[in-house]
Design a protein that fits this description.
By secondary structure, the protein is an alpha+beta fold. The chain contains six helices and eight strands. Helix 3 packs parallel to helix 4.
Length: 221
């Protein structure tokens, strides 16, 4: 039986969290795949989404391959430790989740389209894990960047939860809240699966289809 350090399964309080550091993580200037600037400012008219759905290597590739996505980056968010290292996040003592920042052109791909990719490519009922990846860093989360995103994310959760229940799955555990500060992960994590095509990808959906369009109508009610 796999032993899991119990600290990895419990969110630390701010007083318990590792202290971190004031200096941001150095990251490349450009995206490894499409050479777009990795840091803001991003193109006029673009929007940003932030998702956590398990190991960020496979999650980032999922989104950079989507039409209309301008740039992606992996990082840490949702915890207390400023500018953490990957090793610190893995202790469970930062409170951060592994996340993907997705900058997209809403004229080409909608936020609802990105939500569908999010829901269909992981199991949002597993709590602090995705498959064999266990710990709060692998929790499911949507960090929203506007009130409109918040409404649509919540409506999508409710709509997909109904589909999951109908297929025998349990309660959705996805955290939805306003986007906290995003801390870039180390350079070697950025676009990892483009640099390491045979690298680990833990993405695994439930096989349940997200009801496209239904939650967009729910959000406008």
């Amino acid at each position: 039986m796999l032993f899991v350090d119990p600290r990895k399964l419990r969110m630390p309080s701010p007083d318990e969290a590792l202290p971190g550091r004031s200096r941001p993580m150095p990251v490349p200037d450009a995206h490894f795949v499409n050479r777009a600037p990795l840091r803001p400012p991003y193109p006029d008219g673009s929007e940003t989404a932030t998702f956590a759905l398990g190991c960020f290597w496979g999650a980032e590739r999922l989104f950079w391959q989507a039409p209309g996505v301008l740039v992606t980056a992996v990082g840490y968010a949702g915890g207390s430790t400023p500018n953490p290292t990957y090793e610190e996040v893995c202790t469970g003592l930062t409170g951060h989740a592994e996340v993907v920042r997705v900058v997209f052109d809403p004229r080409v791909v909608s936020y609802g389209d990105l939500l569908r990719l999010f829901w269909e490519n992981h199991d949002p009922t597993q709590g602090n894990r995705q498959g064999n990846d266990v710990g709060t860093q692998y929790r499911s989360a949507i960090f929203t960047h506007s009130e409109a995103q918040g409404r649509e994310a919540e409506a999508s959760r409710d709509a997909f939860a109904r589909e999951l229940r109908g297929s025998g799955y349990g309660q959705v555990t996805t955290e939805i809240r306003q986007a906290p500060e995003f801390y870039f992960a180390e350079e070697y994590h950025q676009q990892y699966l483009a640099k390491n095509p045979d690298g680990y990808c833990g993405l695994q959906g439930t096989g349940v289809a997200c009801p496209v369009g239904l939650f967009a109508r729910d959000a406008s009610d």
